[in-house]
Amino acid sequence: MEMHTIESLPKAVLHDHLDGGMRPQTVLELADETGYRGLPASNPEDLASWFHQGDAGSLVTYLAAFDQTVAVLQSEVALSRVAYEAGVDLARDGVVYAEIRYAPSLSTAQGLSHEAVIEAMLDGFDRAARESEIVIYTIATALRHRTDSVEVATAASRYVGRGLVAFDLAGPEKGYPPEDHLEACRVARRAGLGLTIHAGESEGPNSMWRAIVLCGAQRIGHGTSIVQDVTVESGRIESLGSFANQVRDHRVPLEVAVTSSLHTGSWLEASDHPFGALYRAGFNVSINTDNRLMSGVSMSDEYHLVAEVFGLDEDDLRAVTIAALESGFGDWDRRRTLIAAIRG
Ligand SMILES: [Zn+2]
């Protein structure tokens, strides 16, 4: 498929981290403005290539790059600017619907409250949405290795109906089971927020089972280890284990990010990645960037990769986009309008 076809296709992203999608130039400018001297490079090209260390090879190494972006995200002005730029950049790439997530706890080092962080993000997204053709919602993330998830969920709950639509758990999966944060999940769900949990990325399907069954997650970030519960023959899924069957039949959205999972070492080659097999077996998989800066990708790049490696044609890509919109947590009237426009 021609690249320009993919670039002009309307796209929807459900899984994109604010601190993983900054412009290199902005990281430099914010470091300059705040006197932060820890950056590993002093020009946008070198900084971009430092961030794209595609051979990070493990989730833990990959996550270390976020120390650099988070260091310059300690003020409302910086957060609002970065949120605005994320919205504008996604819109320019043909993204019509985005849910962008961030962990407010990461921006409290210089005294910001969780609420102030959320409000700054909402402000930036609002400015981007007013001048671009894009619908943007916010997801508040709590980190599995921290102990403040209830506070994050409580802060997030105050913004229901104001652009914040869901609560998420992220961070190292191994050794930090999601049910450690059950109370935070309950707070978010009682407030009416959607719940998505990073799971089945570096751990097996049992981690997804915990997120879905014990915590009540409606969507799963990544979730690709579900292939450990299926039988694959010559690249096709031939039979499903009982949990994989549940995930497929309940249409649990799996927020898949192919390039990101190559970078974190979940798979070595794109051709080994299970996206294509999961899609053809009827799983509700979406195409996501996860971290545009760290992975050096845009949504168009990811759509292109999926088309090329797994043989999805334009109709398939539209179907994936529609499924992503149906799986969104934002206002249904707005999502329905976008779906109708894609169906034509
Ligand atoms: Zn993620």
Report on this structure.
With 344 residues, the chain is of the alpha/beta class. The protein has a single domain, classed as Alpha-Beta Barrel (TIM Barrel), CATH 3.20.20. The protein has 17 helices and ten strands. It has helices spanning 3-8, 24-34, 44-51, 59-64, 66-71, 76-92, 114-131, 149-157, 182-191, 205-214, 242-249, 258-263, 275-280, 292-295, 299-310, 314-326, 332-343; strands at residues 11-17, 95-102, 135-143, 164-170, 194-199, 219-222, 230-233, 236-240, 254-256, 285-287. The strands form two sheets. An eight-stranded parallel β-sheet has the order 1-2-3-4-5-6-9-10, sandwiched between helices. Strands 7-8 form a two-stranded antiparallel sheet. The longest helix has 18 residues, at 114-131. The protein is globular and about 55 Å long. Bound molecules: zinc ion. Zinc ion is lined by residues 15, 17, 170, 198, 221, 290.
Q: What gap, in angstroms, lies between the N and C termini?
A: 20 Å
By secondary-structure content and strand pairing, the structural class works out as: alpha/beta
Small molecules bound: zinc ion
**Mean pLDDT value:** 95
Biggest sheet strand order reads 1-2-3-4-5-6-9-10
